[in-house]
Amino acid sequence: NAGVMQNPRHLVRRRGQEARLRCSPMKGHSHVYWYRQLPEEGLKFMVYLQKENIIDESGMPKERFSAEFPKEGPSILRIQQVVRGDSAAYFCASSPAGVRGLNTEAFFGQGTRLTVV
Amino acid sequence: GIQVEQSPPDLILQEGANSTLRCNFSDSVNNLQWFHQNPWGQLINLFYIPSGTKQNGRLSATTVATERYSLLYISSSQTTDSGVYFCAVNGGSQGNLIFGKGTKLSVKP
Fold it and tell me: Which of A40, A79, A107, B109 is 20 to 30 A from A48, alpha carbon to alpha carbon?
């Protein structure tokens, strides 16, 4: 049973370009969460999705950031017109079906390190 | 929202020593997890422990939910234990986790 898969592992973008980060949850998991980690800090929640639905995007910046989890395929975190401040590690987590993901253990992917130059 | 505080922020140990890491949280929680982030940045699940005590090899954890804290014990530490240990909790109506700032552990040979 493969774990949470994220790709790419490393991504370099010039200012103004778009970044697309992908996450495939563990088999049987229907809840996906995206987190951002700035250097020397803990992880901060960005967005929570289930298939074809955004459940909570309260942690995501209002502009330039979007996320989706289509019926088929991985979840995508998209950052448009990247700026240097977007440089960070972006982690995806998944958890099994439960009432809105409560009382279930979350598992994390290896992260995507985004560097904006 | 829930506040999560971890202590100590930094810890240096000699190989073979034991240590206790603490996580305090400000409200009741549905979920508490401990993670180890290794020097390559990978987050490894250590314990899912909203209450009670669990052990896995040299590591064990105890959560006292009524007193809003959790402890992670590392015995006979090894250099491979180095990294950052995070406590994360969920206490809201959804499954997203709130992370503490971590304890950075360095184990010297």
Answer: A40
